[in-house]
Design a protein that fits this description.
With 174 residues, the chain is an alpha/beta fold. Helix content is 37%, strand content 15%. The chain has helices spanning 36-50, 75-83, 95-109, 141-165, and strands at 24-31, 56-61, 114-121, 169-172. The longest helix has 25 residues, at 141-165. It is globular.
């Protein structure tokens, strides 16, 4: 017991949960597209260098179903979750990617006791947003436009959810 009457305890080996719940950050690291090894290195570095005692991490893949956010406060478990990413990844962010991002933000907003933060690791946005459609063959343009519209709608919904819940989303393009 310290002079202020607060009990001081030592964290268990590998357990980074040493801070009161109100001071912790709850990170949702979302793996989307790209090269799995580079994504894993980025996430491992983030966990080693940015996750502080008391923080929790949930590792999520956009191509996997999501029943809950699998939080852990044990650094070894965080790193194992990153190493066990399945590799069911797509070549660039898709409509499904952004709907999953919106869902994770919504679930994270309901978690009590921590400051929510999303880290979205993905290989950029689709080229269709960068003016590629006008350069395509005319017969492919309607299909590409439908796809781009769906992706944009999902992206806007994810951005709206982040804004409404005031949850920051940090994007990483390996």
């Amino acid at each position: 017991v310290t002079a202020s009457g607060v009990s001081a305890t030592r964290p268990a080996s590998g357990n980074v949960n040493a801070a009161p719940a109100g001071n912790r950050t709850d990170y949702a690291i979302i793996f989307d597209s790209g090269h799995t090894q580079s994504q894993q290195r980025i996430a491992e570095t983030f966990i080693r260098e940015a996750v502080r005692p008391g923080d929790r991490v949930a590792v999520v893949e956009t191509k996997m179903g999501l029943s809950e956010l699998p939080f852990t406060d044990v650094r070894g478990d965080m790193l194992n979750a990153v190493r066990n990413v399945s590799g069911l990844l797509c070549p660039s962010a898709t409509e499904e990617s952004f709907w999953m991002l919106r869902d994770v933000i919504s679930r994270l907003a309901r978690v009590q006791g921590g400051r929510p933060v999303v880290v979205f690791i993905s290989v950029g946005t689709p080229l269709l947003w960068s003016g590629v459609i006008p350069t395509m063959r005319r017969d492919l343009q309607p299909l590409a436009m439908d796809r781009a519209t769906g992706i944009r709608r999902a992206f806007e919904e994810a951005a709206r959810m982040a804004t409404v819940t005031r949850i920051p989303v940090h994007t990483v393009d390996p």
